[in-house]
Amino acid sequence: MPEPKANKDQVYADPRAQVAAFAFDERVADVFDDMIRRSVPGYGMTLSLLGIIAQHYAKPGTRIYDLGCSLGAGIASMGAQLTTPDVSFVGVDNSAAMLDRCRPNLATVEKQHTVELLCQDIQKTPIENASIVALNFTLQFIPKDERLELLTRIREGLAPGGILVLSEKILFDDPQIQADLTTLHHDFKRSQGYSDLEIAQKRAAIENVLVPETIDAHEARLSAAGFARDEIWLQCFNFASFLAFK
């Protein structure tokens, strides 16, 4: 599967007198593939297995939505492994900088499937006749009190037998577990070449922008949104991916 060109992430490499809130701007878009792969343990496996999930659950005549599609890695993974006919993809992101770099990464997918890219707020995106909706590391950027409405709309837009793939950074009620896994996450980042300065400045930038929740909170919300059941299919340190079934 072809991967987006990965420029090295050095966004937080130099000391800053004041660290601004994290944003998916031009500078982040230029290095995003490298940033997320070196920041999220298990990200590569999440992508590769997403293609297997798509092959199993995609239905002819339906759509697959990737909400918060960024550079298109999720669509590329699903499209590379999908043999189901008459399936179209809809990628949505509110960052024009991301979408400008997304389309070239989907050239192979577009040889077999229709791909529509929308620059808009995913909270305003109509979800219609979807066999799969992917929400990978995106819900955590939506205000907490607006997450249920989004998940409810997604569930209502799923075709019979449709699924939601939800991947998120997670919290733990037990403070020792939270501390242990945060430490391991930072150790992972160091193993990927990030300095302590980069880790600290990125953490400051993302605080109050990315707001994680516990597994119990996610599962309670999925139930409140009307999903029949959900399962955790992948967890790596303090990141987890759920399958939610209509």
Question: Could you characterize what this model shows?
Answer:
Keywords: S-adenosyl-L-methionine, Transferase. InterPro entries: CmoA, Methyltransf_25, SAM-dependent_MTases_sf. GO terms for molecular function: carboxyl- or carbamoyltransferase activity; S-adenosyl-L-methionine binding. This is Carboxy-S-adenosyl-L-methionine synthase. This protein has helices spanning 26-39, 43-57, 73-81, 96-102, 144-157, 175-191, 196-206, 215-224; strands spanning 63-67, 88-93, 115-119, 130-136, 158-171, 213-214, 229-236, 239-245. The model has no long low-confidence stretch (mean pLDDT 94). The chain has one domain (1-246): 3-Layer(aba) Sandwich (Rossmann fold). α2 crosses α3 (73-81). The protein is an alpha/beta fold and 246 residues long. Strands 1, 2, 3, 4, 5, 6, 7 and 8 form an eight-stranded mixed beta sheet that branches. β1, α3 and β2 form a beta-alpha-beta unit. The chain contains eight helices and eight strands; from the N terminus they run ααβαβαββαβααβαββ.
